[in-house]
Design brief:
The complex is a heterodimer. Helix content of chain A is about 55%, strand content about 15%. Chain A contains 15 helices and 12 strands. In chain A, strands 3-4-5-2-1-6-11-8-12-7 form a 10-stranded mixed β-sheet, sandwiched between helices. In chain A, strand 4 and strand 5 (about 150-155) form a beta hairpin. The longest helix of chain A has about 45 residues, at about 1-45. The radius of gyration of chain A is 24 Å and the shape is globular. Chain A starts with a helix and ends with a helix. In chain A, about 40% of the residues are buried. Chain B is mostly helical. Among the domains of chain B are: about 145-215, Leucine-rich Repeat Variant (Alpha Horseshoe); about 215-315. In chain B, helix 13 runs parallel beside helix 15, helix 15 (about 235-250) packs parallel to helix 17 (about 270-280) and helix 18 runs antiparallel to helix 19. Chain B is elongated and about 80 Å long. Classes of the chains: A alpha/beta, B mainly alpha. The interface of A and B includes residues 43, 55, 125, 149 and 199 of A.
C-alpha cells in the first residue's frame, strides 16, 4: 500500500506530461488549420455578392439540380420549407431544378398537408427503378403537383432519413442532387453558390459540396425566408453559435483546402448523383449517414483513382434551428458522436493507411484522436486538475499549466473564430451581440465544454459496450446476407 | 446614391449632365456599379446610343486599370466581372497583361478567356491551346459567346480541327442556339456514326433539339447496326440508345415506331422511359401505348407504357 502511495506522484506526473503533450499537438493542429482557413478567407473576402453568380443563373448550360427533402412528422414546418423552395421571392434563384419531398411514413398530417396545399395528384402506375441496386422500404405512392410541375411528393413506409434520401436518389432525374433537412432555411442564392465550385472553379471533378450552416434561433424568419439575423439570448444557443463558427473555421474550411473534408452537414449538401449511385447511396444502418457517405466517397475516389474533390463553400448558405434545452441538445450530441464512431469504425481500414494519403494520415486520425477520443483525454485532464487542487501545492505546479493552456487555447480559438467571422462577413452584428459572443467564448471552458465532454465520453462508453454485445448479431447478418 | 437617382436615370436616357454624379469615393463607385448592373439586367441597351458605355469608359477605366493588378485576388476578380459586364473593349491589352502576370489564378484566367471571346479577340484559340484549358461548363459558355449565326458555318467547316473537349461543347452550342444549315445537318448526321461514343451522343442530342433529320434512314441505319451488335451491357451504350429514342420522339416518323417498340423493352430504365415518352408524342401515341400495355409479352414494356399513359406531358 505504501509503495503504491509512493508511486502516485510519478503516475501523476506522467499523466500530466502526456496531457501536456496531447494539448500541444492539439494546439498545433488547430493553429495550422486556422491559418489555412485564414488564407482562404483573406483571398475571398470582398468578392462581389452577385456578379460571380450571374452567369450560372442565366446560362443554358447550368446543370439542373434535384432537391431532396426527407420529412418525418414535419407538419408544422413542411409547407414553409416547400414554399421557400418553389414560390414567390423565396424561389430558388436557380435556372432548373426539381423538388422531391419524401414523406418517410409520418404519423402526423405531413402528407395530407402537402397534398392539399400543392394540389398533389397521385401517379398510380409509376415505374420505380433501383439504381445500382439501391434498395429502400416500399413506396406507397408518388404525387405530382398540379400547380408546380417541378414538385414531386413520395409517400413511403418509414425507414429513417437515409432510406428516405435513397428513395429520392432513385427518383432523381438530374446530374446533381441537394439533400436538405425538413427545417433548413436556405438563402435564395444558395444553390448558385453551391454549384459554383462544381462547374466554374475546378478542372477536377467535384463529388460533393458542403456549405456553411448558421444557427437560425433568434432570427426572424417569415414564410421560409430569413428577414432579420439576430443572436439568440439563450446561453446554450450562443455557445452553439460559437461552436458552429469554430467548426466552420477549423473543421471545414481548413480541411477542405487540402481536400481533406470529411463532414458535409446533413442540413445542406450538394452531391454528384452518378457517383453517389455508384457508391450505393446512403447507408441505412448508421445515425451518421451524412459523414459516412462523405468518407465513403473519399475512399472510393482514392481506390478507383477518380481524381475528384470534395469542396466547401464558405459563404453562409443556410440556417438551421439549434436545440434550446439540454435534453434535446444531449440527444443531438449523442447522435453525432455515435455517427462519428460509426463512420470511423466502418472505415477503420483507412486510418493511418498510407494508401489513403492525407485522408488516412490527417483527417481520419484527427477525427479519431481529437474528435472521438479527445473527450476521454479531456476528462482525464479535468480529473488531474481537480486531483491536483485537492492534493495540494506540490501538485499544483503540474496542474496550473494545464489549466492555463486549456483556458487560453479554447478561448483564443473561439474568439478568433468570432472575430474572423465578423471581419469576413462585414458588420452584421451589434456591439452587444459581439460582447455576448466574447463573454460566452471566455466562459466556455468552465461549463459548456465539460458538459459536452461528459456526454461524449458517456456515448463512447455505451457505443463500445453496445458494439461488444452486437458482435454476434452482426456476424450472423453477414453470413445470411 | 438616392439623391442622384433621378440624375443618373436622366443621363442614361438622354446622355446629358453626367457631371452631377461623377463618383469619387469607393462607396460611390460600388453603388454606381451595382446600379448599372441592375439596370443592365432589367433593360436592353441599344448599341448606337449607349451613354453608360461612355460614362464607364471615362470614369471607371482608370480605376479598373489599377484594380486589375491589385494584390488581393477578390478585388481582381470583381474588376474582371465588371469589365465583362460593361464590355470595356479598350481594356483588352490590360487583360492580356494580367494573363501573363504571375499572380493570375486559374479563375482569373477563365474569366479573361470569356471576356476575350466577347471581344472577338483573334488569337484566343491559340492562347487557350497553350494553357490547361477550361472546365466544361465555362468552355460551353465561351463557345456560346464565340459562335454566332454569322460565323457558325466556319465552326462546322473546321469542326474536326478542334480539340476533343471543344468539339463536345461546340455540338451543345449548335443545339442551344438552334443553328441550322445544310452543312451542319450533314456534319451532325455523319457524327452519329463517329467512332467516339460521347461525340455520337452529343450529336444525337443536338439533332433531337433541332428536331430535323434529312431522312429517317439515317437513324434507322444506326439503330439496325446497334441491334446487331447486342452490346447492351455497356452503360454508355444505354445513354446512346436513350438519346436515339429521344430523336425519334422529336422527329416523329412512322418508320421509327417499330424501333421505339423495341426500345421500350430495353433493360435500361432510362431507355424504356424515353422510348415510352417518345411514343406518347406521336399522333396515335396513346393508342400504341394502350396496345403495348395490353399485348406486349415484355413486363418492362407493359409497366412503363402504363406509366406514360397516365402521365400528363406537362410534367416533363
Amino acid at each position: 500500500m505504501n509503495e503504491l502511495w509512493d508511486l502516485l506522484p510519478f503516475i501523476f506526473a506522467l499523466l500530466n506530461h502526456l496531457m501536456f503533450a496531447y494539448l500541444l499537438i492539439l494546439c498545433f493542429t488547430y493553429l495550422s488549420l486556422f491559418l489555412l482557413s485564414f488564407n482562404q478567407i483573406k483571398r475571398e473576402r470582398g468578392l462581389h455578392n452577385v456578379e460571380p453568380y450571374k452567369r450560372i443563373r442565366n446560362s443554358a448550360f447550368t446543370p439542373p439540380i434535384s432537391v431532396l427533402v426527407p420529412a418525418y412528422n414535419e407538419e408544422m414546418g413542411i409547407i414553409a420549407t416547400i414554399l421557400s423552395l418553389i414560390t414567390g421571392s423565396g424561389r430558388l434563384n436557380y435556372p432548373e431544378y426539381e423538388v422531391i419531398v419524401i414523406n418517410d411514413g409520418s404519423k402526423d398530417a405531413t402528407l395530407q398537408k402537402v397534398i392539399e396545399r400543392f394540389k398533389m395528384t397521385p401517379l398510380k402506375n409509376k415505374v420505380f427503378q433501383k439504381r445500382n441496386g439501391i434498395e429502400t422500404k416500399p413506396i406507397k405512392n408518388i404525387y405530382y403537383s398540379e400547380i408546380f410541375p417541378q414538385l414531386v411528393l413520395v409517400d413511403k413506409e418509414n425507414g429513417g432519413k437515409s432510406d428516405a434520401l435513397n428513395v429520392g436518389i432513385n427518383l432523381t432525374r438530374y446530374p446533381y442532387f441537394a439533400s436538405i433537412d425538413g427545417d433548413t432555411i436556405l438563402e435564395p442564392d444558395s444553390f448558385l453558390k453551391m454549384i459554383h465550385p462544381i462547374i466554374e472553379a475546378n478542372e477536377q471533378e467535384v463529388l460533393a459540396v458542403g456549405g456553411n450552416v448558421l444557427i437560425a434561433n433568434g432570427c426572424t424568419i417569415i414564410q421560409g425566408q430569413m428577414k432579420e439575423k439576430r443572436l439568440s439570448r439563450n446561453p446554450l444557443v450562443v455557445m452553439q453559435t460559437i461552436e458552429y463558427m469554430r467548426a466552420f473555421l477549423i473543421g471545414r474550411m481548413g480541411l477542405s483546402r487540402k481536400n481533406l473534408l470529411l463532414i458535409i452537414s446533413g442540413a445542406f449538401g450538394v452531391f454528384k448523383t452518378a457517383r453517389v449511385v455508384q457508391a450505393g447511396g446512403y447507408r441505412v444502418d448508421t445515425v451518421g449517414e451524412d459523414m459516412e457517405l462523405v468518407v465513403r466517397l473519399h475512399r472510393m475516389n482514392i481506390e478507383n483513382k477518380w481524381g475528384a474533390k470534395i469542396e466547401f463553400v464558405a459563404d453562409p448558405v443556410c440556417y438551421t434551428e439549434a436545440p434550446e434545452d439540454l435534453k434535446v441538445l444531449k440527444r443531438q450530441r449523442v447522435r453525432w458522436h455515435r455517427g462519428l464512431f460509426d463512420s470511423l469504425w466502418i472505415h477503420r481500414k483507412m486510418i493511418l493507411n498510407p494508401k489513403y494519403g492525407g485522408i488516412g494520415f490527417i483527417s481520419m486520425p484527427h477525427f479519431l484522436f481529437v474528435e472521438l477520443l479527445g473527450p476521454v483525454v479531456e476528462m482525464a485532464g479535468y480529473l488531474v486538475i481537480v486531483a491536483g487542487l485537492i492534493l495540494g501545492k506540490s501538485y499544483f505546479q503540474y496542474s496550473l499549466p494545464l489549466i492555463l493552456l486549456t483556458v487560453v487555447y479554447g478561448s483564443f480559438l473561439s474568439m478568433s473564430a468570432v472575430l474572423l467571422e465578423e471581419w469576413r462577413l462585414g458588420h452584421n452584428k451589434r456591439i452587444s451581440e459581439l460582447n455576448r459572443l466574447f463573454f460566452f467564448a471566455l466562459s466556455e471552458t468552465i461549463w459548456y465544454r465539460p458538459i459536452m465532454t461528459f456526454w461524449r465520453v458517456e456515448t463512447l462508453i455505451s457505443v463500445v459496450r453496445g458494439k461488444k454485445q452486437s458482435w454476434g448479431e452482426m456476424s450472423r447478418k453477414g453470413v445470411s446476407g | 446614391m438616392d439623391q442622384h437617382l433621378e440624375e443618373i436615370e436622366m443621363y442614361l436616357m438622354t446622355g446629358e449632365r453626367a457631371s452631377s454624379f461623377i463618383p469619387a469615393t469607393h462607396a460611390q463607385f460600388d453603388a454606381l456599379e451595382d446600379f448599372f448592373s441592375d439596370y443592365l439586367s432589367n433593360f436592353k441597351t441599344e448599341s448606337d446610343f449607349n451613354p453608360m458605355k461612355t460614362f464607364v469608359e471615362q470614369y471607371f477605366v482608370q480605376r479598373y486599370r489599377k484594380r486589375l493588378f491589385h494584390s488581393r485576388w477578390s478585388v481582381r476578380m470583381n474588376t474582371l466581372y465588371f469589365i465583362d459586364l460593361f464590355k470595356i473593349e479598350m481594356m483588352q491589352d490590360d487583360l492580356l497583361r494580367l494573363l501573363k502576370s504571375k499572380k493570375c489564378s486559374s479563375e482569373e484566367r477563365y474569366q479573361i478567356y470569356l471576356i476575350l471571346a466577347d471581344f472577338e479577340y483573334p488569337y484566343l484559340l491559340d492562347l487557350i491551346k497553350v494553357s490547361k484549358g477550361l472546365p466544361p461548363f465555362l468552355l460551353k459558355e465561351m463557345m456560346s459567346r464565340l459562335i454566332i449565326p454569322s460565323n457558325f458555318e466556319s465552326y462546322v467547316q473546321n469542326f474536326s480541327d478542334f480539340p476533343y473537349e471543344w468539339r463536345l461543347s461546340i455540338l451543345d452550342v449548335f443545339g442551344d442556339k438552334n443553328l441550322r444549315s445544310l452543312k451542319l445537318q450533314e456534319l451532325l448526321e455523319a457524327l452519329l456514326d463517329f467512332n467516339d461514343r460521347e461525340i455520337r451522343v452529343r450529336a444525337a442530342k443536338t439533332i433531337a433539339s433541332l428536331e430535323y433529320i434529312s431522312s429517317p434512314d439515317v437513324i434507322i441505319r444506326i439503330l439496325d447496326k446497334n441491334f446487331q451488335k447486342q452490346d447492351r451491357q455497356n452503360p454508355q451504350s444505354i445513354s446512346e440508345k436513350m438519346m436515339l429514342a429521344r430523336v425519334m420522339g422529336s422527329i416523329r416518323e412512322e418508320q421509327f415506331l417499330p424501333y421505339l417498340k423495341l426500345l421500350i423493352r430495353d433493360k435500361g430504365y432510362i431507355v424504356r422511359s424515353e422510348a415510352a415518352r417518345s411514343i406518347r408524342k406521336y399522333k396515335n401515341g396513346r393508342e400504341i401505348l394502350l396496345v403495348i400495355t395490353a399485348e406486349d409479352q415484355d413486363n418492362y414494356a407493359r409497366s412503363i407504357a402504363k406509366e406514360w399513359l397516365e402521365r400528363s406531358m406537362d410534367y416533363e
